[in-house]
UniProtKB/TrEMBL annotation:
EC numbers: 4.2.1.1
This protein's name: Carbonic anhydrase
Highest taxon above the source species: Eukaryota
Assembly description: Interacts with SLC4A4.
Gene: CA4
Organism this protein belongs to: Neovison vison (American mink)
Record family assignment: Belongs to the alpha-carbonic anhydrase family.
Length: 323
């Protein structure tokens, strides 16, 4: 997951002379981080996920497998407040060499949802595969999905609830993660982005969407966004800084199969267009001692003792009324 707005993020430049996990031929050019599919390609000399340096070997990394039955209900995880998510715009799109990125330029923001501050949207990008269960970075109960979309937000300065939270570096970035799966119908909200892919096949290429869309056009309806999982983790690309508060939504987004395949078919990792951009997914990381929380789900609104009292009471009242 990249958070920079430049065509090639600064953290791409992880030089071999700083991190030398394996010996390279003297004639090899400087190596950068890459995904496993690139590391396995014969014409690539790059550092795959197991060799990433900087913070990538620490203990609070992302993504993880979310075991839904072990997630603890947190009553503070209420609904989000979305600002600017309804604004339609012809967004800028770029191939940054690792994903396709949409530059959001701080036009939208989020608050609520158990977050300690307001966060402003900087960019969104996706991860994907041609295989229906290999394209998401996070998994639910061991199940992967065709794609995963990350909407990346940075904390607004001076909006934390208290000074202690403002000093805490664990939540400088808030990422809304959406899992995508194949559906039978075309997703019209996504189509302008899908059509833009043809204009950015190679790294460092930029274009602008031909049609205006809003962020709400890309994500599930607002009433479907009340159910989500929350944990503290990291960026999923080098330097893997552990500064991310993750929100992984339960409700899936559906794209038609040809829309999903367009990402693998139209985008390339290299300028020569020899290696299709696909499988751009970091392997799962250990959860360790971290807790995963979840928002309160339907049917959990009443504590059990209160529910056992109310149901018979309501039954008696209805019976008396019907008489």
């Amino acid at each position: 997951m990249c958070t920079q707005l430049q065509p090639i993020p600064r953290d791409v430049c992880m030089h071999v002379h700083r991190h030398r996990p394996r010996v390279l031929p003297l004639s090899a050019p400087e190596s950068h981080w890459c995904y496993e599919i690139q590391a396995q390609a014969s014409n690539y000399t790059c550092l795959g996920p197991s060799q990433w340096g900087e913070d990538c070997q620490k203990s609070r990394q992302s993504p993880i497998d979310i075991v839904t039955t072990k997630a603890q209900v947190d009553p503070d995880l209420g609904p989000f407040s979305f600002s600017g998510y309804d604004k339609k715009q012809k967004w800028k799109v770029q191939n940054n060499g690792h994903s396709v990125m949409v530059l959001l330029e701080g036009e939208a923001s989020i608050a609520g949802g158990g977050l300690a501050a307001r966060y402003r949207a900087t960019q969104l990008h996706l991860h994907w595969s041609e295989k229906p269960d290999r394209g998401s970075e996070h998994t639910l109960d061991g199940r992967g999905f065709a794609m995963e979309m990350h909407i990346v937000h940075e904390k607004e300065k001076g909006t934390s609830r208290n000074e202690k939270e403002a000093q805490g570096p664990k939540d400088e970035i808030a990422v809304l993660a959406f899992l995508l799966e194949a559906g039978s119908e075309e997703n019209y909200g996504f189509q302008p982005l899908v059509e833009a892919l043809a204009y950015v096949p190679r790294p460092k290429m930029n274009t602008t969407m031909k049609e205006s869309i809003s962020l709400f056009d890309l994500i599930p309806k607002k009433e479907k966004l009340r159910h989500y999982y929350r944990y503290l983790g990291s960026l999923t690309t080098p330097g893997c800084q552990e500064t991310v508060v993750w929100t992984v939504f339960q409700e899936r987004i559906q794209l038609r199969r040809d829309q999903i395949f367009a990402f693998s078919k139209k985008l390339y990792y290299d300028k020569e267009q020899t290696l299709s951009m696909t499988e751009n997914v970091r392997p799962l990381q250990p959860q360790g001692q971290r807790h995963v929380f979840k928002s309160r789900a339907p049917g959990q609104l009443l504590p059990l003792p209160l529910a056992t009292i109310l149901v018979p009471t309501l039954t008696c009242l209805m019976t008396g009324f019907l008489r």
